[in-house]
Amino acid sequence: MASGSSSIGIDGFFENAEVTTSGRPVLRRNEVECFLLSSVDIDSEDDPPRFTALRSGNLILTTHRLIWIPSQSNGAVPSSVPLAAVTHIFSHKKSIKSMFHSPRIRFQANPGSIVVTIVFRGKGDFDEFLTKLWECWRGRAWEEEEKSESETSRSGSGTVAQGLYGNDGTVRMVGLAGILRKEQEQWESTDKSLQDAFQDLNALMSKAKEMVSLAEKMRQKLLSAPSSQNGSTDDEEMGSKEEMQQWMLSVGIISPVTKESAGALYHQELSRQLADFVRIPLEQAGGMISLTDMYYHFNRARGTELISPDDLWQACTLWEKFDVPVMLRKFDSGVMVIQNKSHSDEEVMSRIKMLVTKTETLRVGVTASDAALTLKIAPAMAKEHLLTAETKGLLCRDMSPDGLRFYFNLFPEIDPTNIHIVKDFGTYGEWIKATS
Amino acid sequence: MQKLANFKLPQFFSYPPYFTLQPVRDTREKQIQLWKELILDYCKSQKIFLIGIEEDFPLFSNSAIDRSLSHEARETFLSAIVGEGRAEWLDKGHRKCLILWHRIQDWADIILQFVRDNGLEDSVMTVEEIRSGTESLGTELEGIDRTILMRALKLLENKGKLALFKGTSADDEGVKFSV
Lengths: 436, 179
Hints:
The complex is a heterodimer.
Chain A: E1 15-16, E2 33-44, E3 54-62, E4 65-70, E5 79-82, E6 86-89, H1 96-100, E7 104-109, E8 114-120, H2 126-139, H3 141-157, H4 175-199, H5 201-206, H6 208-224, H7 231-238, H8 241-247, H9 259-262, H10 266-284, E9 288-290, H11 291-302, H12 309-317, E10 326-330, E11 336-340, H13 345-356, H14 359-364, H15 368-375, H16 379-391, E12 395-400, E13 403-408, H17 427-435
Antiparallel strand pairs in A: 1-5, 2-3, 2-8, 3-4, 4-5, 6-7, 7-8, 9-11, 10-11, 12-13
Chain B: E1 3-4, E2 7-8, H1 25-46, E3 50-52, E4 61-62, E5 67-68, H2 71-83, E6 87-89, E7 96-99, H3 104-117, E8 124-126, H4 127-132, H5 146-158, E9 162-166, E10 173-177
Antiparallel strand pairs in B: 1-2, 3-7, 4-5, 6-7, 8-10, 9-10
């Protein structure tokens, strides 16, 4: 068992990476996931080593960081290296020797110009990863943020100026004209942004975050101003208003896990992402939601890169292998639902128990419709719960021409060696009172 | 509390689920045990030796709660008794069941005791006399099922306690005791 602080290096090289309860990395604002590989080690090339090696984890490349997540709980901590800290990526020469070894990438990073080697021991498209790594490193997504952050701080810090021209020489947005001009400029840049995005689908993916927030703004504009003059430009671009409204999708997942970016681990990562996503719809539905409803919610949030029903089902079945707080459950009737592991059957069972131990129900039992009314759930769900209670031994059944009824299970309370004895305590006595 | 003839029925005889074969294994095992005990108790008290599965055996239904056991349930419960050696199916179709509320060995012991009590150690009797003769009036042997009696006698014959022989008429067997 590795020591607890194994991945905080000797001089604090790695940063801690936040992960969700399902083991997915928590991405920062504007951070988009680009690639994922498994069975990756990270070693320090220097002698003596500048940090403790990380062994056998998943490596996730994003626009901002390299994130390493341990695949077994061996005491290692999820870690990350900001791409901004990388000063140099060594070129990868293929040689006869390299064909027999696991592929590796070496780069240099601060603090301290440490040389880091990433060793790829698993299957996966290594060349694609390398290409993406260069793209992300060169893309310098973190700098755009810093730029926009400093811009907003700059515009807020100047003294209030009078007149049309501001202190720094730019045209100030004043009055109605200013507002209109500001809107005009915004729409023009939006326009350009949309054109760029649609021409190149790859670029679209990387602009996903921008697109999603634009979509939200436009949707609100459409809803509030049905025939605004600004709407006409967009209509030409995208057809009728109705089409555009349909195209406006719920804001959801910014970096959908795709088959391309996760390769062979597609189902595993999808499974984890699904586990994260499922939490909120589950809560809203009271702890249990049918698989078909979840299919609808999930795809609606993804927007593009929709998953098939089969992919969804496979992703759910993989949950057994991970330590996630949700589970797929198939009732005997064939109905499949997703529920929280903590959504206690206990809670429902205790409510059913209270129902069947009332004097009247002790006497005549309950049907699925009775239970549905009392528990305030759908009759189909009520029947499933009654059947579950029967399996657990809380209830037993009575089948007659009148139909199927369930009674509190008295069998355990009766002593076969003494069939005439009724114990002082217990529900058997209650039942006798109720029926006499 | 219900009665069947002079037999006191247990309270759970009016519990509707008692008459539905339970699907859940643990519950069903409990149910089977209760039916076994009830059937054996009842048969012993009423001296019933044979149950026909399709016949109107009084325990199989309770008109007060409008419930009766399905064919499957009856067969399940009777088979459980057979499995414990307290009953036997007389036919492959499982339609007739011989109830051994005393085991054959027990009956054999009762016969030996009967022989001693009446000083019949070296006597000869017909099989019919054992079950309906004056000596057996008021004893357990009165009215014993013929099949069961023959089995017990055969058991004792194998142990050398008696000898069976055919009598003057075609179906009149006799017994010579040598206890």
